[in-house]
Amino acid sequence: MDGDGGEGSAQLHRSADSRAAADSNSSGGSSSRPTRNRDSDADADVDTEFNLPAVLAQLDATDADAQRQAVRTIQAHVDDRPEACIPAVPKLRTLLERTDLECHEAVAYCLAELAAESAADVAPSADEIVSFAAERPSHPATADCCRCLAAIADERPGALVDRVDAFVPPLESELAAARANAALALARVADEPERRLEQTDTLDSTDELRTLLADLERTDPDPDVREWAGRARDRLR
C-alpha cells in the first residue's frame, strides 16, 4: 500500500513499540515507512462484514462507545479493504480533533493506512493531522500521524509545504518512531521540485530547522531518525 516515491524500495518505521515489528528493507536496511501502531485488539468484537453505511452512521453517533466501535471496525478491515474505508476519512479526521476521545491511536493508524492507499483522499485532512502532531508530539498516536503525513508528502508534498515549521515538535518527540516518521515526511516535502521551503510564509528560517536536523543526525540514539534527519537536512534548499 505504501508508495515507494523517491525512496525506492525502502520502508518506513511501522511499529512504535518495537523495531523488530518494522518491515525491513530488502536492499540496504534503510527505513521509509512510518511506524505502525496497530492495536492488537483491533479485530476483537467487530463484525466480519464491513458495512460502510452502518460504520459511517456510528462515526456520526453522539455515543462515544459507538464511535470507538466504528473506528475499531475500520481498523480491523483497513489493511485488507482500504478502498472500502476511504469514505470514512473526513469523519476520522473529525474524531482526531476530539480531545475527549480515547481512540486517537486507532484513528491515526487508520488515516495512515488510508493515506498509503490514496494520498489524494487524505491530503485535504493534512492540516488537522499536522496540528495534532505539533500539539501532541509525544502522544502515542503521533507516530502514525507522521506516518500519514509521510504518505501524503510522497504524492502531495504541496499539501504540507506551508506547514514544515509544525514538524519541529514531533522531531523533538520522546518517541523515536514519531521523530523518524516526521523526519521522513519532512525529507519528502523538502524534495518538492516546484517550490522552495524558504519562500513559505510560516517558516522563519530554514537554518534553524537544519540545525535541529543536524543535531538529530549526529546524536539521536535511533538509527532511522539519524538517517532521515540527514536526508531531510540535505534536501532543504
Tally of contiguous helical segments: 12
Mean pLDDT: 81
Sketch the major β-sheet.
Answer: none
Low-pLDDT ranges: 1-11, 15-31, 40-47, 198-203
CATH-level-4 superfamily name: Leucine-rich Repeat Variant
The helix content, as a percent range, equals: 40-55%
Strand content: under 5%
- Outline type: elongated
- CATH fold title: Leucine-rich Repeat Variant
Please indicate the count of domains.
1
Would you identify the CATH architecture? Alpha Horseshoe
The radius of gyration is 17 Å
- CATH hierarchy, class: Mainly Alpha
Region (Disordered): 1-47, 216-237
Protein name: HEAT repeat protein
InterPro entries: ARM-like (IPR011989), ARM-type_fold (IPR016024)
Biased composition (Low complexity): 18-33
Properties at a glance:
Leucine-rich Repeat Variant; mainly alpha; HEAT repeat protein; 51% helix; ARM-like; single chain; ARM-type_fold
Quick description:
Helices cover 51% and strands 0% of the residues.
Note down, in words, how this protein is organized.
It contains 12 helices and no strands. The protein is mainly alpha-helical and 237 residues long. The chain has a single domain, classed as Leucine-rich Repeat Variant. It is elongated. The model is unreliable at 1-11, 15-31, 40-47 and 198-203 (pLDDT under 50). This is HEAT repeat protein.
Topology:
Elements lengths: L51 H8 L4 H14 L4 H4 L3 H8 L7 H14 L1 H4 L3 H10 L6 H14 L12 H4 L4 H15 L15 H14 L3 H13 L2
Organism: Halopiger aswanensis
Protein name: HEAT repeat protein
InterPro entries: ARM-like (IPR011989), ARM-type_fold (IPR016024)
